[in-house]
Design a protein that fits this description.
It is a single chain. This protein is mainly beta. Helix content is about 15%, strand content about 40%. It contains three helices and eleven strands, in the order ββαβββββββαββα. Strands 1-5-10-9-6-11 form a six-stranded mixed β-sheet, with no helix packed on it. The longest helix has 11 residues, at about 160-170.
């Protein structure tokens, strides 16, 4: 396992992005075809939309690259998996405002990603975290490994913030 990102990542509108190819990821398009799997939208080619409970401020975030599927860690409160395939040689984790980005070093091949969260409801209640405040209670883990495409899956849901986004992923656009 290789740690690609570890530390605080700033979110705006409760969003972080994984991008290859430079296209923006629309909120509705990101969840297209995921049949009620929210939190991590992989419906836009070459991009992922990652949602957080905290609306504005820094959250603890880790991204890992694995050689094969890691065992799910049940201590996480929210867990989803989606397929992902980069469409260019450069794939980055990018903050909403574009101020910071982290090169992920992914190849142009099929991956599976697992997005896990803890404390989303606490982050949603907090809403905004100023830079001089203690860390937010919500934390996030993005695990990536090579795998053949398979449908998005909801592995675990416990909180209201996650339930909201899973319902959003079910609703028709418009």
């Amino acid at each position: 396992m290789k740690v690609l990102v570890s530390g605080e990542v700033h979110v705006d509108y409760g969003q972080i992005f994984v991008e290859s190819g430079g296209d923006d990821c629309d909120l509705h398009d990101a969840f297209a075809g995921q049949e009620g799997v929210g939190l991590c939208g992989g419906g836009t080619g070459g991009a992922l939309l990652l949602l957080t409970g905290l609306r504005i401020g820094g959250v603890e975030f880790t991204a890992e690259l694995h050689e094969s599927r890691p065992a799910p860690d049940e201590t996480w409160e929210e867990i989803v998996e989606v397929p992902f395939r980069p469409v260019s040689e450069e794939t980055v984790l990018r903050q909403w405002n574009g101020k910071n980005r982290w090169e992920l070093g992914l190849e142009e091949c099929d991956y599976r990603v697992r997005y896990s969260a803890i404390g989303m409801d606490a982050g949603r209640s907090k809403s905004v975290r100023e830079d001089d405040e203690p860390p937010s209670e919500d934390r996030y883990l993005l695990q990536i490994w090579p795998a053949a495409p398979e449908p998005a899956r909801l592995l675990k849901r416990t909180g209201g913030a996650a339930a909201y986004w899973h319902a959003f992923a079910t609703s028709p656009v418009g």
